[in-house]
Each structure stands twice: as C-alpha cells, then as structure tokens.
Amino acid sequence: SAQVVKNIKFFILDLPKMRKIINLGSLTAMQMFFEVAIFTAAIWLSGLLGKNPQAANQIALNLSSMTFMVAMGLSVAATIRVGNQKGLQNYKELRRIAFSIFLLGILLATFFALLFFVFHKSLPNMYVDLKDTVNYADNMEVISIAAKLLLAAAFFQISDSIQIVFLGALRGLQDVKVPTILTFISYWVVGFPVSYYYGKEEMYGSFGIWLGLLAGLSTAAILLFIRFNTLTLKLIKEKQS
C-alpha cells in the first residue's frame, strides 16, 4: 500500500528576526575583518623591509596568535554569560560577570606577557635551524628581530585581551554597530598610520610596525571599555527608574 505523508507544516520566514540576525552577524564579521586585516597589513609592511624582517614578523605573530586564543575563548564566554543576564534583565549581575571575565583575562594576559618578556630571546630559536651554517647570518638576524617584536607583543597581550573580552561582552548585549565603528577607528585610523610611519626602514622597521599594532589594540581596549561601562550603567539606571 502507498505510504501517505501526513502532518506536513509550512512555515513563513520571520523577516524582522532574519534581518536582526543578519545585522548582528554581518557587523560582527566586520569587526573580525578589521582586526585580521590590520595584522595582514603588518605582514605586508614587514615584507617591504625584506625577507628576514618578514620571517621575524611571522614568528612573533605565530606566538602571539597562540596566546590570543585564550583571550578569544574568554570573549566567547563573555558573550554567552552576558547574553544570558541580558535576557534576565539582571544588569548588575551582568556587570559583575563581565568584569570577572575581564580580570581573569588580564591575569592570563599578564602571565603570557611575562613569558614573552623573559623568554623573548629564546622563543624564536624554535623556528630556525641553528645548525644551518649556510644561512646562519640570516637566521641570527631573524632571531634578533623576532626577539624585539616579542617585547612589543608582551605589552599588547594585555590590550588585546581587554579589547576582545569587552567586544564579546558587547555582542552579548547585542550592541554591534558602535563597536564596529570603534574597532575600525582603533585599527585603521590609529593603528595602521602608526605602523606605516614608524615601520619604515629609516625609522624603527619591524618594531615600528608592531608599535602601530600596540597603539591600535590599546585604543580599542580603552574605547570598548568606555562603551561597555557606559551602556551597562545606563541599563541599570533605566531599570531602577
């Protein structure tokens, strides 16, 4: 006998909800794009200085990217926990949770910063063949440049952790438009010009490029902290009134 399919239900797309999801997702993607793009620009700028500065840049970028994953995990945790408390309209608890994650991020970032500072001359050795006598001079130059870059990376560990955690917390509040503008200003209006100017060979070279990254991330950390603090205090005040 023929099988009859029953209980078929059609649905109508909820366009307002879809529009909201697309808006949240696209602006979040732009935030990530701006940050990835500034580090890609740093690779390009270092390439203009030669193969050894570019190799050193890749070493420092690889090490700092690994430690950044910890801050990224905390950022995701902040998004989830803040979003939960926003749904409950418990804004005081929301702030407590966000600042707890923020402080944890600073502690871990400080630990990684100390590692980079103490072992900045040793860590690059893992990436080069010290037994290669043919390229020994180039390898020594790469290690020397990478060691200096790790000093800059040590300082922006904290800035990077702060900005990514508060960016995650703001996403939990579904606040993405203003943070997108703030990240663009921080990375491309502040960070890139500093990297471009100080990254010239006659200035500070590769170290100057990373000074620009430090400037951009520090600016983002300050602006996003102000945004989160202002927004949550406003929500608490509105609920109490």
Radius of gyration: 22 Å
Ranges where pLDDT stays below 50 over 5 or more residues in a row are none
The helix-and-strand class reads mainly alpha
Distance, first to last CA: 67 Å
Q: Total number of helical segments?
A: 6
So what's the overall shape? elongated
Structure description:
The protein has one domain. The chain is mostly helical. The protein has helices spanning 15-49, 51-88, 91-118, 136-172, 177-198, 206-240. The longest helix has 38 residues, at 51-88. It is built from six helices and no strands. α1 (15-49) packs parallel to α5, α1 (15-49) runs antiparallel to α6 and α5 (177-198) packs antiparallel against α6 (206-240). It is elongated. Helix content is 81%, strand content 0%.
Notable features of this structure?
elongated, mainly alpha, 6 helices, single chain, 241 residues
